[in-house]
Design goal:
heterodimer; A: two-stranded antiparallel sheet; globular; B: mainly alpha
C-alpha cells in the first residue's frame, strides 16, 4: 500500500472511533448503554439494522460469489421483506409494549425462567463463536493480501472497535454504523464505476451482456433439475422465499444483535418503519453488490487476470518443486485469457449486427470460459499437492485482488477501511447484544433476582459499569476465538451453517409464544431440546454424506419441530395431568 | 385509532405490508426478465 492509502485508512478509522465516542458521551445509564434510551428515529434504526447484517464478508464474498457462481445468491434474501412484515405485526408491538431489554426477557413473562434461560444461552453460544469468526474472516484476507501478521490483524480488527463499543454502548454502535454505511456505499459505488471504466471500448450494458453470456446473471433459478426439486441446491427462488423467510425471521425476531437495534427506536412506529424500509432496500442493495462481481467477470474477460486470486498462497508455493508446473498453467491461462477477450468482443459485435451468428459465438465463448475454469481447478489441485494445508477457495479474494492490483492510490486505502468498517458494524452490535443478554438474562436475573429489567434502581451505576466489563469480556473472547480459528475452510459457510444449528429452535420458541397462546413453558422447553438434537443429527448426516440437505432448510426443520412437538406435548399434558410436563410454578 | 394516527405516509400499516409484497413481486419479475434478457 502507498503512503496515501495508509493516510486514508488511518484517517477513516480514526474518524469513526472519535465520532462514536463523541456521539455517545452522554450515555450514563443502563437503558442508554443497551438501548440508546429508546430514542432513535427510523432512519438510524434502518442504518443500524443494515450495518449489523452486512459484515465485511458481505462486501468481500458477494462479488466473488457472483464472479464464480453467478448472481443467484440474491434469492437468499427474497424471504426478508416477508419476515419484516411478520416481525412488524407480531414481534415489535409486544417487545415495545413490555419494554423488554432482550427478546428472551419476554419468554419468561410468556413461559417460564428455564425457557428464557435456555433460549438466551443458545443465543450466546451461537453469536459468541460466530462473532469470533467474524473477526477472523476479514483478518485472514487482509493478512494474506497485504502480508500483515494474522495475530496483529485480529487484534486491530477486533480491538479498536472495543474502545467505542465499551465506552459508548448502543448509541456509539448506531451512530458509527450510520457513518460506516455512508462510507461503504460511496466506496462500492466508486469501485463499480471504475470497473466499467477500465474495460476498454465496452459500456455498462455490453459488460452485462458478456457476463450474462457466461451465465453470471442467473438471478432467478428454480432449483428443479432432472430428478425434480434439488434439496441440496442452496440458492433458488423456493429456498429463498421459504427458507429465507424462516432464516430472516430467526435473525430479526429472535437474535438479540438485531432485536437490540430496533428496540433502540423511540416508539413502535419508528421500529416498524426501520424494519419495513430494510425490507424495501435490502434486496436491491444485495443485487448491486453482486452486480459488481458480474461486472468484474467482464473486466477479466477483456483484461489479463490471475489464475488464482490469493496472492499470498501463490508466492509460498512457487518455492516448492511444483513451481514450474504452476508457471506452465499460468502461461496456458494467458493464451486463453486473450481468446476470451477476442471472443467477447466478437460476441458483442455479433449481437448488434447478426443475431443468428451471435449464438455460435456465445457457444465458443462459453467453451473457452469452461476451459479457463478447468485450468483454475488444475491450478488449485497443484497448490493442494504442493501444500495440503493451503485453502484453495479464493472466492473471498477476487474483489480485493482487483482493488489492490488496479485501483488508484487512496481508493485502495478507502476500500481496506471499508473492510474494517463493515466488520466493526456487525461486531459492535454483536458485542453490545452479548453483553446485554449476559447482564439482563443471567447476572440481573440470577444474581439480583430481577425477572423483569424495568425501572432504575439503587445499584444502577454498578450495573452500568459491570455492563462495560461484560462488553470488554465478550470482545476479548471473540478475539481469542479469532486467534484459534485457523483452518476452518470456507468461513462464510462456517458462520451460516453454525448459525442454522441454533436459529430454528430459537425461532420455534418465539413462534409458539406469539401464535399458540394456550401452550405453556414446559412443552416448549422440551420441544426446543428435541429440536436441537434433531437439527444437529440432520447436520451430521448431511456432513457424512448419508443424506443431502441444504443448511437453509435446517432453520425450517428446527422451528417446525418446536411448534409441532410443543403442540403434541401440550395435548399429552392435558390428557395426562400430573405428568412430568406440569407447568413450573 | 391510536395506531392509525401513527402510520407514516399511509392510513394503515396494512398498506405498507401490501407495498412490500408488491415491490417483492415486481423485483422478482424484473430479475426474471434480467436473467432471460442477458443470458
Amino acid at each position: 500500500m502507498s503512503a496515501t492509502d495508509w493516510i486514508v485508512l488511518i484517517a477513516t478509522l480514526a474518524i469513526i472511533v472519535v465520532y462514536g465516542l463523541y456521539k455517545s458521551r452522554t450515555t450514563k445509564n443502563l437503558e442508554g448503554y443497551f438501548l440508546s434510551n429508546r430514542s432513535m428515529p427510523w432512519y438510524l434504526v434502518l442504518l443500524s439494522i443494515m450495518g449489523t447484517q452486512a459484515s465485511a464478508i458481505t462486501f468481500l464474498s458477494a462479488p466473488g460469489q457472483a464472479f464464480t457462481d453467478g448472481m443467484r445468491f440474491v434469492q437468499n434474501y427474497f424471504g426478508l421483506p416477508l419476515a419484516m412484515i411478520v416481525i412488524s405485526i407480531s414481534f415489535v408491538p409486544i417487545f415495545k409494549k413490555l419494554k423488554v431489554f432482550t427478546a428472551y426477557e419476554y419468554l419468561e413473562q410468556r413461559f417460564d425462567v428455564k425457557t428464557r434461560t435456555f433460549t438466551s444461552f443458545l443465543f450466546l453460544l451461537s453469536r459468541g463463536f460466530s462473532t469470533g469468526i467474524s473477526v477472523y474472516a476479514p483478518s485472514i484476507i487482509l493478512s494474506s493480501l497485504l502480508g500483515w501478521d494474522i495475530f496483529w490483524t485480529n487484534i486491530v480488527m477486533g480491538g479498536i472497535l472495543i474502545i467505542y463499543t465499551v465506552s459508548g454502548g448502543a448509541k456509539a454502535v448506531a451512530y458509527t454504523q450510520q457513518l460506516q454505511m455512508v462510507i461503504i456505499f460511496s466506496a462500492m459505488f466508486i469501485t463499480g464505476y471504475y470497473i466499467v471504466q477500465l474495460i476498454p471500448g465496452v459500456n455498462f450494458t455490453d459488460a452485462l451482456k458478456v457476463s450474462g453470456a457466461s451465465g453470471k446473471l442467473n438471478v432467478i433459478t428454480t432449483g428443479f433439475g432432472e430428478n425434480g426439486f434439488e434439496w441440496k441446491d442452496r440458492y433458488n427462488i423456493i429456498s429463498g422465499l421459504v427458507g429465507g423467510l424462516f432464516l430472516q425471521l430467526s435473525y430479526f425476531g429472535a437474535d438479540q444483535s438485531q432485536v437490540g437495534r430496533y428496540l433502540t427506536a423511540k416508539n413502535t412506529t419508528e421500529s416498524r418503519l426501520g424494519l419495513l424500509m430494510n425490507g424495501l432496500v435490502k434486496i436491491p442493495m444485495q443485487f448491486f453488490i453482486l452486480l459488481l462481481g458480474a461486472l468484474l467477470f467482464s473486466y477479466y474477460q477483456f483484461n489479463s487476470g490471475p489464475v488464482f486470486f490469493n496472492k499470498g498462497v501463490d508466492e509460498k508455493v512457487y518455492q516448492t518443486r511444483y513451481g514450474d508446473s504452476l508457471r506452465a498453467i499460468e502461461k496456458e491461462f494467458v493464451v486463453l485469457n486473450a481468446t476470451q477477450g477476442r471472443l467477447s468482443a466478437s460476441y458483442l459485435e455479433a449481437r448488434k449486427t447478426n443475431p443468428v451468428n451471435s449464438a455460435a459465438t456465445k457457444d465458443s465463448l462459453v467453451k473457452v470460459n469452461m476451459q479457463t475454469d478447468r485450468l483454475r481447478d488444475d491450478y488449485k489441485s497443484m497448490l493442494k499437492k504442493a501444500d495440503p494445508s493451503v485453502d484453495t477457495n479464493d472466492t473471498n479474494y477476487i474483489f480485493l485482488r482487483f482493488v489492490i492490483d488496479t485501483l488508484p492510490a487512496g481508493l485502495v486505502g478507502l476500500l481496506i477501511a471499508v473492510i474494517f468498517l463493515a466488520s466493526w458494524g456487525s461486531i459492535a452490535a454483536a458485542l453490545n447484544s452479548l453483553a446485554s443478554c449476559t447482564m439482563v438474562d443471567f447476572y440481573a436475573r440470577f444474581r439480583l433476582k430481577h425477572s423483569h429489567y424495568g425501572a432504575e434502581d439503587a445499584i444502577e451505576e454498578k450495573k452500568y459499569n459491570l455492563s462495560k466489563w461484560f462488553t470488554l469480556g465478550w470482545g476479548i473472547f471473540c478475539i481469542v476465538v479469532a486467534e484459534f480459528s485457523t483452518n476452518m475452510g470456507s468461513l462464510i459457510q462456517a458462520v451460516n451453517e453454525y448459525g442454522s444449528l441454533f436459529y430454528g429452535a430459537i425461532l420455534g420458541v418465539f413462534l409458539v409464544a406469539f401464535y399458540m397462546k394456550r401452550i405453556n413453558g414446559t412443552p416448549v422447553f422440551y420441544s426446543a431440546i428435541i429440536s436441537e438434537v434433531l437439527v444437529i443429527t440432520l447436520y451430521i448426516l448431511d456432513k457424512s454424506g448419508v443424506i443431502g440437505f441444504g443448511f437453509l432448510w435446517l432453520n425450517i426443520v428446527g422451528a417446525m419441530t418446536v411448534v409441532v412437538f410443543s403442540w403434541l406435548l401440550h395435548k399429552i399434558n392435558r390428557t395426562m395431568p400430573g405428568t412430568v410436563l406440569q407447568q413450573d410454578t | 385509532m391510536l395506531q392509525k394516527k401513527n402510520v407514516p405516509l399511509f392510513k394503515k400499516w396494512w398498506y405498507w405490508y401490501v407495498l412490500l409484497i408488491a415491490v417483492l413481486i415486481l423485483l422478482i419479475v424484473f430479475f426474471d426478465w434480467f436473467t432471460k434478457y442477458f443470458s
